[in-house]
Amino acid sequence: MPQADLCIQRALWQDREVDLWVLDGRIHALHPSLSSPEIEARKTVSARGLMLLPGFIDSHAHLREPGQEYKEDIATGLEAALCGGFCQVMCMANTEPVNDQAGVTELMRSRARSSHPQGPQLFPVGALSKRLRGEELAPMYELAQAGCIAFSNDGIPVGDSGLFRRALEYSADLGLPVIDHCEDPGLSGSGVINEGRMSDALGLPGQPTLAESTQVSRDILLAAYLDIPVHLAHISCRESVELLFWAKRKGIPVSAETCPHYLVWNESLASGYNTLAKVNPPLRTNDDRLALCQGVRDGTIDTLATDHAPHADFEKEAPFAQAANGISGLDTALSLTWSLIEAEELGLADALRLWCERPAAIFRLASNGFQPGDPADFFLFHPGEPWTVSEASLKSKGKNTPCLGQELKGKVKMSCIRGSLAYTEEHEPELG
């Protein structure tokens, strides 16, 4: 009789109960429970009533180490990812020192292996320019050799279009993508909130959507001229979606992401000078939110990413204009995505495409489609289980989320990465 390392029994997959077998870190077989062949397993998990989902990929997270461990470190960031359903995490380069040299890349990978030897897997994103200053290209070949899988200037826009062109050309030679934060600094100026009614009501300098869409158009035209792919980070407004829709119809090699917070919330969350809602690009209008939802449904926007940006409390407990930008998102991204599914603004197939299939294709990462030989990266999910977002329930050091004090639905009950079980609850699932 065939033998597997692990069997997940009676899990829900595509509205049917299935049994899943894992062997040597890979999917061995998946069959409907009532017609499953007899296969022995060294370990069995009863998953009745739980959904079986492939491991998510977060292609945009800030884990702060080295240099800003008071906000987050790799160990706590990966723990938050594990509990949030993420099996692969791409971390940005805005560390101290900046990840613009091989030693920093190697340190990140080493810390990930030592803190989470079974995963989640960490994939560093190298700096596009030295010290993220946008003046001189970083040593891209050296960073690629050290293990970086993409390049980005992170949250600092590259205003020099000639430099950005060279970055695209060099990255293409290395076979690695560039991720761009689309913002024209001359247009965004000192804006700290979306320019419009809310900025007027609060008396705060606004950042117009034009600051984003202008840079989106530049990147699209460069990608078309060079025939080199570019990936656009955290798209936030209708104009950008419309430009991307046009580019996709023209066959221009451009891809884009947005984040759960742009699909769930709008600028009204910042009323009362709520610094937990301060993020860059800022939360926009409800019309922008609806355009983004349409964009993720029709494929104009390729992926979701958390843009996980943890901060210490004192960095948010400041006047709105001085408070740090960012939302801590790894813990809550899955529940927020599930709220969109429950509201019928997204389907489950959309979520799997956005969190699994497309990021894997764009960044050349392994993905689990539950076919024999696929990596055994998956989690068991209870979609109806409520949990309260609190400082205690968040695994990340960053407690800066607008969800604080709210009840969300959906909990990861168990994770499996490359065939190894990683429990995210205090008690273990039923084992046989």
Overview of the molecule:
The chain has about 425 residues and is an alpha/beta fold. It has a single domain, classed as Metal-dependent hydrolases (TIM Barrel, Alpha-Beta Barrel), CATH 3.20.20. The protein contains 13 helices and 19 strands. The chain has helices at about 75-85, 100-115, 140-145, 160-175, 185-190, 195-200, 210-225, 240-250, 260-265, 285-300, 315, 335-340, 350-365; strands spanning about 5-15, 15-25, 25-30, 40-45, 50-55, 55-60, 85-90, 120-125, 125, 150, 180, 195, 205, 230, 255-260, 305, 380-390, 405-415, 420-425. The strands form five sheets. The chain has a six-stranded parallel sheet. It has a four-stranded mixed sheet with strand order 3-2-1-4, with no helix packed on it. A four-stranded antiparallel sheet has the order 5-17-18-19, covered by helices on one side. Helix 2 packs parallel to helix 3. The longest helix is centred in the middle third of the chain and has 18 residues, at about 210-225. The chain is globular and about 65 Å long. The two termini are about 20 Å apart. The model is unreliable at about 425-430 (pLDDT under 50).
